[in-house]
Fold this protein.
Amino acid sequence: MRVGAAACVSASAGPRGVWVFVLCAVCAVLNARLALSEAPTAPPANDAEAKADKPTELAAKEARTDAQNQHRAREHFQQGQEAYRQGKWERARALFEAADSLLPSPELAFNLALVCERSGRASEAVAYYRRYLKKADTNMRERREVRDKIAALSALAARQQGQLKLPPPSGDQLTAEARRFFTRGLALYKRNQRKAAMAAFMAAYRLRQTPELLFNLALISEELGHRRDAIDYYQAYLRRLPRAHDAGAVRNRIQALTKPPKEP
């Protein structure tokens, strides 16, 4: 926990929840700057000194801008908190990004990493965690934990680079209804709505048991952390297509998933 952030941290959020944020500390710095810029000064001895001591119009404008940014950033952050409580990850991410663009901080980068991790944006989560490590004052244990997260998310991001299997050509294997569910699943996956995509692919699979659907179900199960389901779907895919061009890669994924996950 950073010094100065304690007042902003929700007691129920845990030691590294999304509420870890130093907006108050940054705001305090800005308030101090404003107070100093408004502090009374002794009357100048002459006109030259008066001109030198008088705050310039640019400085006053900058002070007003700082105060406005502080207020707007606080609003964005509070709205982001509420969106996070409601499980609206995309809205929370957009609001935290807006706050970060006004008053960037390593703690807010950590919050953004958490939201991206929750919403399946592995690559973006890695970038925010790395930024946090670069800027934050952390101890060895914290750095190790964040590095472990980066390693796990980097592996997930690499897997996400591989696209889902597309449906078979029109007229092959899939009924019209199954094809609609298949297409809907692809669209939902592209929007990072993994659970909804899973439901759509399951609906398609109940209508037509194609190997492409088995592969997609395996991939999403893996991304959602459902290791046993992912292994079962991958194995079913190989039984249907034992000589598939990606059979070797799928066997490697099964082997990796059978290993116990690393302790945090």
About this structure: The chain is about 70% helix and 0% strand.
